[in-house]
Amino acid sequence: MKLAQFIERRPYRFLAIMEAVVVIVYLLAGTCAYLLRLSNMALYGLANFGLTLIVIILLTRLKWWGTVGFTPLRRRGDLLYFLIPLVPAILNLIPGVHIESFAQVSAVFAVTLAVAFAEETVFRGLMLQAIKPFGHWRAAIVTALLFGLTHAMNALTGKDLLESAMQIGYATAIGFAYAALALKKDALWLLILSHFLTDFIFFLQKPGFVMPPFWQSLIVMTLTITFTAYGIFIMQQKSRLQIRRAQDLQAQHASEGNNA
After folding, report:
1. φ, ψ for residue 205 (rounded to 5)?
2. Which of 49, 27, 41, 83 is nearest to 197 (CA)?
3. Would you tell me how many other CB atoms lie within 10 Å of the CB of residue 60?
4. 105 touches 225 (CB < 8 A)
């Protein structure tokens, strides 16, 4: 059975396989980083360079580059829809940035670009495309939950459970809003850019900056609510557009029938 046929007939199995691939790659990278005493940046690099290679192979084999959203925007005005995803990147500028060397910036650039490309293409590209035929709301919710579930691995790194739970909720909300935008605007590359800028600025923040827990929790909760609401807004817009198109099509058919 060809890969495209497998995805069409067994979309949820494909999602499970892709989720397993992401988890396994991260676990392998984490094991290597632990044994070799590598930094978190090196861990992310190992994992996401591997995932990037897998994603490129899959997209090329399926011929899905355009299908998942590597296409130009239909209208310049659509850029306004991608302003909300830039909010976390702007907030990451609050502590200021610290640049040690060109080598440091280059390493951060390469790793965060790989993270953004791999995660967006897996969750808002391959996975979303696989289950989109079963309904856009279902596709957005399922891929968002899987994205949040993937971030549950942070609990294994010794982070506080409450902090991990908030991060999972935040990741799920972002995953939902990003999925809604991917479904509505078919511009995955803009989501990759937003994701990249957020991570890139975060890893260049001045060392030693610690935000008070109250304000950190407040920002995370506010962003979680904002992205959830924005995702719902985008999905409702798309639903209304689909209903309007269906009504116009029915009216057109009725008019043609009367003329005949």
Report:
1. -60, 150
2. 83
3. 10
4. no
Burial 183-212 (b: 16+ CB within 10 A, else e): bbbbbbbbbbbbbbbbbbbbbbeeeeeeee
Q: At CB < 8 A and 24+ separation, what contacts does 72-81 make? A: 72/187, 73/185, 73/187, 73/190, 74/185, 74/186, 78/185, 78/187, 79/190, 81/181, 81/184, 81/185, 81/234
**Cα–Cα distance measured from residue 242 to residue 144, given in angstroms and rounded to the nearest whole number:** 22
**Domain boundaries, given as residue ranges, for the chain:** 3-245
CB of 108 closer than 8 Å to CB of 41:
yes
At 157 the three-state DSSP class reads helix
* Ordered mean pLDDT values, 10 residues apiece, the chain (260 residues): 90 96 93 90 93 97 95 90 96 92 95 97 97 95 95 67 86 97 94 97 89 90 97 85 54 54
What's the CA gap between 40 and 36, in Å, rounded? 12
* Token pair in block for residue 68: 């998942």
Coil, strand or helix: which one is 15?
A: helix
Residue whose C-alpha is closest to residue 115's, from 9, 24, 191 = 191
Q: What is the DSSP letter of 97?
A: B
The tokens describing 254, both together, are 């009725």
| Structure-token match 């897996």, residue found | 122
